[in-house]
Amino acid sequence: MPEFQSVRGFHDLLGEDLRKFRHVSQHLREKLKLYNFEEVVLPVVEYLEVFQRSIGEVTDIVQKEMFAFKDQKGRWLALRPEGTAGAVRAYVQNRLYALKPHVKLFYEGPMFRHERPQAGRYRQFHQIGAEVFGSIDPLVDAEIIQLVYEFLSELGVPSVIEINSIGCRVCRPAYRVALKEYLEGVSEHLCQVCLDRKDRNPLRVLDCKVPTCKEAVRGAPKMVDFLCQDCTEHYAKLKEYLQLLSVPYRENPYLVRGLDYYTKTVFEAVSPELDMTLVAGGRYDYLVEELGGPPTPAVGFAAGLERLSLLVKELPREEPLYMVLPFGDVMDYALAVVKSLRSEGKRVELSYKRAGLKKQLELANRLGVSYVVLVGEEEKAGGFYLLKDMETGQQVRVEFNPAL
Predict the structure, then answer these.
(1) CB 228 within 8 A of CB 167
(2) Entry pTM
(3) Homologous superfamily of the 321-399 domain (CATH)
(4) Degrees (nearest 5) of the Cα angle 76, 79, 82?
(5) CA angle 226, 162, 174 (to 5 degrees)
(6) Would the CA dihedral through 82, 125, 254, 200 be positive or negative?
(7) Quick one: CATH architecture of 15-171+227-310?
(8) For residues 317 and 298, what is the distance between their CA atoms, to the nearest angstrom?
(9) Which of 50, 90, 239, 369 could form a disulfide linkage to 46, CB 3.0–4.6 angstroms apart?
C-alpha cells in the first residue's frame, strides 16, 4: 500500500471513468448552449452566511455537512455545498438584473459535503447547474424539465421525471401545521433524525429514505391539496406545457427538496437502476430578495456528474491514435510528420523509445495505437512515410514534403 492515499471521500478521476465524466459534462454543456444559457465561473469558497441564508440554518447541509472554517481575520467561510446560492449571490452582486429582462446562467465545478461516501456520492463531487432569473412563467419550469429530459434521453440514461408543487409563502404555512399534526400521530415510527425534523423542518421528513419513515408518511396530507389559487394555476399550467412538449412525467405528491429556498415547482430525474436522484431542481422565487437583490422569480436545476457517469454504458468511439516511429538520424523529418498530422486534427504520439521495429511495434500495441507511421532514412530521402494499420497489418506509402 502506498504511503500516501487520497482523503476519504475525495477521489481521483482518470482513465475510462474520466472519459465518461467528460462525455456527460460535454453533452450537457452543448444542450445548455442550445437553450441559450451563458456560463458563469463561480468561486469555490463563499462566506458561510450565503449558505445559511439561502439553504436554511436547520437543513442537514448547514448543520452537519458543510466544510466551514475561519479565515485569518476570523470570518467564517465555507466550501460550497451546492451552486445555486453562489449563482444568486453573483446575480445580485454584479447587478445582472439591470442588464436583461431575464438571465440564464450555467456553471460547472466541484461541490463539497461532509457526508458518508457511497457509490456515486463523494465528499468532493461535481455538478453542472443552470438557473433562470426573472420569469415567473411556468413555461420556464417546463423548458428546464424538457432540457433535463432530452439530455438524459440522448445520453442513453434511463430515468423517470417526478414533479410536485410545494406551494409558496401564502399556502405552505397551513400545510406545515397539518403535516406536523399528522407526524405527531406517527412519531413512534419515525427515526431519530425525523423526530427532530418534524418540529423544525417537517417537510424534510417526507424526503427520508429510512423504510419505517417512508411507510409512516404514506398517509400524510399532500401539499397539492393546500395550494393557493396562484400555485394551483401555476402547477396546472406546468403539466399542460409538459404535455405539449411531449415530456413524460410522474406526479409525486411527497416530493420535496432538501433546501429551504424552493417554492412551487420541484422536480427530480430518478434512476430506476440506481434508485438514486440524478438531476434535481425547482423554483425559488424569494431567494434573490433574501440575498439582497430585488424581488426576482427564479428556477433551476443541478446534475451530479459522478452519478450520471456510472450509468453511461457506451462511450463514443475515440479518434484513432497515430504513432510516429523514427529510425536513424531522421528526427527533423519525424517531427515534421508529427506536426503535419496534428495540424490535420489527428491524435499523434511520437515514440520516445530508441529500439528496433519489433520493440517499437510492441510499444505501439501496449499504447493502443491504431496506426503507426514508419519514418527512416530511406523515407526521408524519398519524401514519404509508411502508414501501417495495426489491426489489419496493411501498409501504404504516403507522399510527404515538409516544405509544403
Answers:
(1) yes
(2) 0.89
(3) Anticodon-binding domain (3.40.50.800)
(4) 120
(5) 15
(6) negative
(7) 2-Layer Sandwich (3.30)
(8) 39
(9) 50
